[in-house]
User: Fold ABC transporter ATP-binding protein from Dyadobacter beijingensis.
Amino acid sequence: MDMTDNVCIEVREVYKRYKSAQEDSLSDVSLDVVQSDVFGLLGPNGAGKTTLISILCGIIPVSSGNVRFFGNGTPYSDYERKSRVGFVPQEYAFYQELTPRQNLDYFGAMYNLSKTRLEERREHLLEVLGLEKAGDKKVGTFSGGMKRRVNLAIGIIHEPDILFLDEPTVGVDVQSRNAIIRYLQQLNEGGTTIIYTSHHMSEAEEFCKNIALIDHGKVIAAGDLQALKTAHGVDNLQTLFINLTGEEYRD
Ligand SMILES: Nc1ncnc2c1ncn2[C@@H]1O[C@H](COP(=O)(O)OP(=O)(O)OP(=O)(O)O)[C@@H](O)[C@H]1O
Assistant:
C-alpha cells in the first residue's frame, strides 16, 4: 500500500466465535482497505469470508477487536455508515412475490430517499442491469441471473460509497456474470470502493486490485494481487490459492 492511499476500512485484531461454536471463525484478522479499491476476500469453504463481511456490514458483532470506517480520512458516524455502505448478500434479499420495481421501492424507502430520487435510481438501475422489461413481473418467476441482478440493484439503490458483495455472481450464466462484473467495474471507476468474495478465481483475478486470502479464520496472505503473485513465483491466482491453502477438500 502507498502512504498516500486513503484507508476507508480499518480492521484490527478481529476475533469471532459464534455462540454455539468450539472454535474461532475469525482469529486475529487485521486488514486495511483503501478508498476506490476492489478488494477480494478469498478462501476455501468455511474459511470465514461471510463471517468477516457480516461483521464489516454490522450484521453480527465481533467477539473482540475493532472495525472503523473512514471517508476522506474522517471516521464515519453510525448514520454515515448506514447511508454510505451497501451490502449485497449471498442469499437473495428480496420479496419473491413482488416485482423489481416494488422491491426497489420498498428497500429504497428504508434509506429515506426522496420519492423523485428513488424513482430516478430505480429506473436507472433497471435499465443498466437489463431488467427494464421485467420490471413489473414477479421476481419469483425470474432466472438465477435476473435474480442476482435484482439482488445487486437493491444493495446499491442508495448509491453507497463502499459496497460489500458476498459471491455476487454465484450460479449465473456467462452473460449475467459479465453484466454484473462490468457494472461493478463502472461503479468502481466512479469511485465506489468494492469488497467482494468469490470462488471464481479467474473472475477475481481480473476484477481485484488487492486481496486477502483467508483460511481457517486467519489471513494467510494480503496485499496487491500482482505483487503477491510475483512474491510467490506464480503467474495466476488459482495457483497462488492452491499453493497457500492446499489441495485437500474443505467439507
Ligand atoms: N451462525 C453460525 N454459528 C456457528 N458457526 C458458524 C455460523 N456461521 C458460520 N459458522 C462457522 O464459521 C466458519 C466460517 O464460516 P463462513 O460462512 O464465514 O465461511 P465462508 O468462508 O464464507 O465459507 P463459504 O465459502 O462456504 O461461503 C465455518 O466453520 C462455519 O461452520
The beta strands are 7-16, 26-34, 38-42, 64-71, 74-75, 85-88, 162-166, 193-197, 210-215, 218-224. Residues 18, 20-21, 25, 43, 45-51 surround adenosine-5'-triphosphate (CB under 6 Å). The domain at 7-245 is CATH 3.40.50.300 (Rossmann fold).
